[in-house]
Structures are given as structure tokens and as C-alpha cells.
Design brief:
With 319 residues, the protein is α+β, with helices and mostly antiparallel strands. Helices cover 25% and strands 32% of the residues.
Length: 319
């Protein structure tokens, strides 16, 4: 195994992600490619490992789920090394939504993409100074998040947490929120929404529709904002109805695209999930850092998923 002194690439391995049967495969493939390997054992390890390595490492890979990747990105950001350190994804979680959206199909493919894939500079987002790459969801309790089954997450992605919250919490307390978005592209003005919400969902790489692999444009400097109003609760009965609600226009679904926004609770603090990592606050300020994170992507990656054409894979990077 490469030593910490000689290796310019680190792999942060979460041994308990997903089903937990990925460790031997990841270690073998990483060792063959000259990675220093550090295994997480407790909360905060992944961020610390990435922060310590980033000043000297050219590449830091996250082997785990979206939460492991989130921690690694925050570690590189804390070291102020996002401009010089590439972050790679080796998907070993349950849903692996982010990896799918950037064209990575599994553990072995993740290592292939590290060596052969193109690098893209994608947007990252921050919420009260904490980075996230995929999504921020408000209104999901830690209890419901922890009790969501692996099968449900694999089928519905982040919407599984929404479904499980409604099923496990019982009579869900709506969130009295004020959401104010900044001026957007094409002359869009700042807009405010105020009312009772079931959930507020902000996607950077994630778009909140019923499709598990729904991808937002992750190089446009904008966040995808979806507010599910309290009146929509009667429609959320079972997974199929949940998918249908998010996949169609609804009078109880508010959508915005914005470079930044502020969410203020008019009562108690709200628990937010940033790529699965929890943050509780009364006021949340979110913004994008456009084309800030350099990341290897697979050949199926589409910077603009609505454009209809695959990005020319053999072309140059966008940094």
C-alpha cells in the first residue's frame, strides 16, 4: 500500500456504507492504483482525513455513499484546496444517486473513471457554510431518515425519506416557512413564498421528481427548489402516488431555479438533511459556487440533462 508520504492520492473508505460487503474489493482496487487508504471509524473521520490530505494530494476519493462524499468535499473545502484537489466517487452506498447522475455505475467503474474519465468542474452548494453536492431537504426527521429501508432508498432515492417520514411520524407537523429566492437567469426577479410546507427540497445535482436518477443541471450555477405545500399531504399515499405527485405539475408544488435563497422558520428550528448529513437551524442561507468542484465523470454524464445530447466525452474538461 502506498505510504502517506509517497502517495498523492487518498481514498477515504467508509466500511459500513451500503451492505458493507465492498471493503475487500475497494481495498484491492485502490491498492493497485497507488492510493493511500484511510478507513473511517467514527463521525468526522472522513472530513478530517480529507482536510489533512488535501494540501498535498492531487486526488481524494470517497468510497461510500452520498454522506461519505459530502464529508470528503467538506474536508477539501475546509482545507481551501478545491481549486487544486480533484474529488472522485467510488459508489459503495445504498442509493448512490449522485454517482449515477455523473455516469458512474459501480465500484469497479468508479476506479476506471478515476483513471480514464474526463474531469468536469461542477457546481457545489453551501448551506450556512456547509457544502453539499447533491441535495438539501428540510422537514425530514433524523428518526425517519435512520429508519428508511435500503430497498426503499434504492427504489425512490431521497423521496424514500419523504415517504417514510409521512408513514412513521404519523400526523406530520407542517413547517411555517418563508422562502426567498435571489434573481435568476433570463431576467427572473427575486421571489418569496410564505406558508405551511410539508417539505422544502433543494437540489444541486438532484432534481426532485419521481425518477430515482433525476438529475439537475449541475454546471449552471443554479439550485432547483421544490416546496411541497401542506395541502399536498392528502395526495401522498404510497410510493406510486408519491412519484406521481413529484413528477407532474401541481397546484401544491412550488418550483424555483435560483443561484441562492434563504429559508426562515416562523416557529421552531427545522432539521435539514445535506446529502444525508443533518443540520438543525431556524434560518438557512443557501448559495451555489459555480464550477468549483473538479470531479471525474463517466461517459453517460450529461451536464445539461434537458439538452437531449450527451456531452462529447472525448472533448476537453470544462475547467
Amino acid at each position: 500500500m502506498a505510504s502517506a508520504e509517497s502517495s498523492d492520492r487518498l481514498l477515504v473508505l467508509n466500511p459500513v456504507s451500503g451492505s458493507g460487503d465492498h471493503v475487500d474489493t475497494v481495498v484491492e482496487l485502490a491498492d493497485e492504483r497507488g492510493f493511500e487508504i484511510r478507513r473511517t471509524a467514527e463521525g468526522g473521520d472522513a472530513t478530517r482525513f480529507a482536510r489533512e490530505a488535501a494540501p498535498d494530494a492531487d486526488l481524494v476519493a470517497a468510497a461510500g455513499g452520498d454522506g461519505t462524499l459530502n464529508a470528503v468535499v467538506n474536508g477539501v473545502a475546509a482545507a481551501d484546496e478545491l481549486e487544486t484537489t480533484t474529488v472522485a466517487v467510488v459508489p459503495a452506498g445504498t442509493g448512490n444517486n449522485f454517482a449515477t447522475n455523473i455516469g458512474i455505475r459501480g465500484i469497479e467503474h468508479g476506479f476506471t473513471v478515476i483513471e480514464e474519465g474526463q474531469r468536469r468542474a461542477i457546481d457545489i452548494a453551501t448551506a450556512n457554510g456547509r457544502a453539499f453536492v447533491n441535495s438539501c431537504v428540510g422537514g425530514i426527521t433524523a428518526e425517519a431518515s435512520g429508519e428508511t429501508s435500503a430497498e426503499s432508498k434504492a427504489e425512490l432515492g431521497v423521496l424514500a425519506y419523504v415517504k417514510n417520514t409521512l408513514e412513521t411520524v404519523g400526523e406530520f407537523d407542517s413547517l411555517p416557512l418563508r422562502v426567498e429566492t435571489a434573481p435568476g437567469p433570463d431576467g427572473e426577479t427575486a421571489r418569496a413564498w410564505e406558508g405551511e410546507a410539508l417539505f422544502v427540497l433543494i437540489g444541486n445535482c438532484r432534481r426532485f421528481t419521481g425518477a430515482r436518477t433525476a438529475q439537475a443541471h449541475v454546471e449552471d450555477g443554479l439550485l432547483e427548489v421544490t416546496i411541497v405545500e401542506d395541502a399536498a399531504a392528502t395526495n401522498l399515499v404510497g410510493g406510486a402516488a408519491l412519484e406521481g405527485l413529484f413528477g407532474q405539475d401541481s397546484t401544491h408544488i412550488v418550483r424555483r431555479r435560483t443561484p441562492s435563497l434563504a429559508i426562515e422558520s416562523r416557529e421552531d428550528s427545522v432539521e435539514y438533511s445535506l446529502d444525508g448529513e443533518m443540520l438543525e437551524t431556524e434560518t438557512l442561507h443557501l448559495e451555489t459556487d459555480a464550477e468549483t468542484l473538479t470531479i471525474p465523470v463517466g461517459e453517460d454524464y450529461q451536464p445539461d440533462p434537458d439538452g437531449g445530447e450527451l456531452w462529447p466525452f472525448e472533448g476537453p474538461t470544462n475547467r
